[in-house]
Amino acid sequence: MAYKTNYDGQQRIMNGLADSVFELSDEEILAEVPDSGMDPKQEANRIASTLLRAVDRWESENERLSSLGHTINPHRWECLDGIYQNHCLKCGAAVSFTTPTGEMQGRALDGSCPENAYPIQKQGASR
């Protein structure tokens, strides 16, 4: 059974993003807003929007992995230098997710899982 993106997976990414912000001191965070000349409310909205786009992208890429027949355990994402990494439980193909850009890469995205005899196909019109 392929794992779908769930609240736990999204929460882990959000926690990782929050941890990167928590590494900054209050002074560093507060100094950035006036120095940038931005309105703090607008900046907060921009950051929230960026985070939501990253989660949406992560979710769509996880659905893509599932449609290719790959099985990714959502509890095994490991963060190394801001890049989340995981592997297909069946074929071992790697996949990574970069939080700042929302970009997913890896061999698992290149095609169907070779270890899954019946990859899940999205339903669509037959030809």
Q: What report would you give on this structure?
A:
The structure is a single chain. The chain has 127 residues and is α+β, with helices and mostly antiparallel strands. It has one domain. The protein is built from 3 helices and 4 strands. The chain has helices at 7-22, 26-36, 40-67; strands spanning 78-80, 83-87, 94-98, 103-105. The protein has a 4-stranded antiparallel sheet with strand order 1-2-3-4, covered by helices on one side. A hairpin with a 4-residue loop joins strand 3 and strand 4 (103-105). The longest helix has 28 residues, at 40-67. It is elongated and about 55 Å long.
Instruction: Tally the helices.
Output: 3
Radius of gyration: 18 Å
Strand content: 5-15%
Strand order, largest beta sheet = 1-2-3-4
Question: Can I get a quick summary?
Answer:
The chain has helices spanning 7-22, 26-36, 40-67; strands spanning 78-80, 83-87, 94-98, 103-105. The chain is α+β, with helices and mostly antiparallel strands and 127 residues long.
